[in-house]
Write a structure and sequence with these properties.
The complex is a heterodimer of chains A (80) and B (187). Chain A is mostly helical. Chain A has a single domain, classed as Orthogonal Bundle (Non-ribosomal Peptide Synthetase Peptidyl Carrier Protein, Chain A), CATH 1.10.1200.10. Chain A is built from five helices and no strands. In chain A, helix 1 crosses helix 5. Chain A is globular, with a radius of gyration of 11 Å. Chain B has 187 residues and is α+β, with helices and mostly antiparallel strands. In chain B, strand 2 and strand 3 form a beta hairpin. The longest helix of chain B has 21 residues. Chains A and B meet through helix 3 of A and helix 1 and helix 3 of B.
């Protein structure tokens, strides 16, 4: 779980204006609201996650991803 | 009450998001892909993104707590005249109406629940010298909302909104060094 958390943070960090916010993020950090990621960059984050884990994030999954933990849960459920 | 939403996207030539393989799958649904966006998908994606995000902002005001999932927002009509685009959208059986302006440096979309109010929606654009994501701290913008006795707050999902005594619906969007504010002008 920690590995996944670190990997997702690394992906998000690439698209963050304020890298420090991402460095200090926890699992409950909201990707847009707390980490101030531009919503359009969520497209990049989703595509990076899909490529890295070789999964497809469908609409039902995407609408649930508010926090880092939500992303971890979706990835975990798809790579099992 | 008429609700409005807006979205501003600064056009940066280094911005590769919408040209990435797979971006169209996230933004467009099957109907849109098979009909009016069949050709030239990548150039239209930034426009579609702003349309859908402006509608999403309204749905959040109506109680939608889900993350922005553009393919769930369905564009039903899409009309383009020069750099002006208009049409209507459906989300969970409710209709929304949008207009989009494409400028050299930015794309700006706004949406409403009542198309009769389009002519009464007013926009203000603010520009920062600082190039960061904090254009919401724009001095002129802060001065403007103070002059109107409005208060800037953030919703649970982080969308900036303005509270005001007259209960006028207001929408704010910022990207790069630009900020757009939209509201109904006849109140």
């Amino acid at each position: 779980m920690n590995k996944l958390f670190d990997e997702i943070k690394e992906i998000i960090r690439k698209y963050a204006f304020d890298k420090l916010l991402v460095d200090n993020a926890n699992e409950n950090s909201r990707i847009i609201a707390d980490l101030r990621i531009n919503s359009a960059r969520v497209v990049d984050i989703v595509l990076d996650i899909e490529e890295k884990y070789n999964i497809e994030i469908d609409d039902k999954s995407l609408e649930k991803i508010i926090t880092i933990k939500d992303a971890i849960d979706i990835i975990s459920s798809k790579i099992k | 009450m008429c609700l409005i939403g807006n979205d501003l996207l600064y056009i940066n030539t280094n911005y590769t998001t919408f040209s990435r393989k797979g971006a169209a799958k996230i933004i467009l649904n099957k109907f849109e892909t098979g009909t009016f966006f069949f050709e030239d998908k990548n150039s239209i994606l930034p426009i579609i993104w702003t349309i859908k995000e402006s509608v999403y902002k309204i749905t959040c005001k109506q109680g939608n707590n889900n993350a922005f999932t553009p393919s769930n927002i369905k564009i039903l009509t899409f009309n383009k005249t020069n750099n002006n685009i208009y049409g209507n959208v459906n989300f969970e059986n409710q209709n929304y109406f949008f207009r989009t302006i494409v400028k050299q440096n930015y794309i700006f979309s706004y949406a409403t629940t009542n198309k009769n109010n389009f002519q009464n929606i007013k926009h203000h654009f603010f520009k920062n010298n600082a190039i960061n994501n904090k254009s919401i701290n724009n001095v002129e913008f802060i001065k403007f909302i103070k002059s109107q006795n409005w208060n800037l707050v953030h919703s649970e999902n982080g969308i900036p909104k303005i509270k005001n005594e007259n209960n006028i619906d207001i929408s704010i969007s910022h990207d790069y060094n630009m900020l757009a504010l939209s509201y109904l002008k006849n109140h």
